[in-house]
Amino acid sequence: MNITVRVWRQSGPDDAGSLVSYDVPDVSPDMSFLEMLDVLNERLILDGEEPIAFDHDCREGICGSCGVVINGQAHGPQRTTSCQLHMRSFSDGDTIDVEPWRSRGFPVIKDLVVDRSSFDRIIQSGGFITAPTGAAPDAHATPVPKPDADLAFENATCIGCGACVAACPNGSAMLFTSAKIAHLNALPQGQPERESRVLEMVSTMDDEGFGGCTNTGECVNSCPKGIPFASIVNMNKEYLRALRKR
Ligand code: SF4
Ligand code: FES
């Protein structure tokens, strides 16, 4: 396949940035999207040009670091991470636009790399439990009802990629935050901080500049891990419950 990519190039946070067009010939349909960028970067380096900065780590859909907007969609046309997207999802002759996440909560550092430390600060404000130290308890020492375990596990699959924020017209981080809250609030081990967790994490989410939810649902459509809209509903319930108990 011969394709053209129009990539957002921005030398630093204060640069205005613009889309720059590159022809990429002989692209294998079996390449991942990031491998296609690797090939382009090798050529840029050989030509003495600055390679395109993009974030990545596991390249297995686990770490959540690789998110970019591809043709206007967070992570591109498939419901998966950018690293798990393959070039067979495109056609010979296509022109593909590649941009960073765009949100007040995710300022651009360089090219396609954004600062997602706002997510770290949301986690730090409540994404933990208090447990006695010492030897590991027996696996069955704390019974967890199966529905609660399933709910916690479903929400624990959030990889913190930020696609939900990038896809939301309000730049809302409510799907991410609600997943982290539901993961721990569903478990017996998460009960001591149940109220403070939701109050602190929502407060930090607001302080970091993320918008509110207006039930658009684009977050759910773009989430590579299938975190459901019910998690946001659950977070709102938990928030009201915590306010009543305060
Ligand atoms: S909720 Fe989904 S889209 Fe949002 S950060 Fe978690 S895995 Fe990514
Ligand atoms: S590089 Fe880890 S999820 Fe894509």
Question: Would you mind describing this structure in some detail?
Answer:
This protein is an alpha+beta fold and 246 residues long. Helix content is 35%, strand content 11%. The chain contains eight helices and seven strands; from the N terminus they run E-E-H-E-E-E-E-E-H-H-H-H-H-H-H. It has helices spanning 33-46, 117-124, 146-156, 163-167, 174-185, 194-207, 218-222, 230-245; strands at 3-9, 18-24, 69-70, 73-74, 95-99, 108-110, 113-114. The protein has a five-stranded mixed β-sheet. A two-stranded antiparallel ribbon has the order 6-7. Strand 1 and strand 2 (18-24) form a beta hairpin. It is elongated. The chain starts with a strand and ends with a helix. Iron/sulfur cluster (SF4) binds at residues 158-164, 175-176, 179, 223-225, 227.
Estimated structural class: alpha+beta
Parts with pLDDT < 50 across at least 5 consecutive residues: none
Rg, Cα atoms, Å? 20 Å
Ligand catalogue: iron/sulfur cluster, FE2/S2 (inorganic) cluster
Helix content: 25-40%
What is the overall number of helices?
8
Strand order of the largest sheet: 2-1-5-3-4
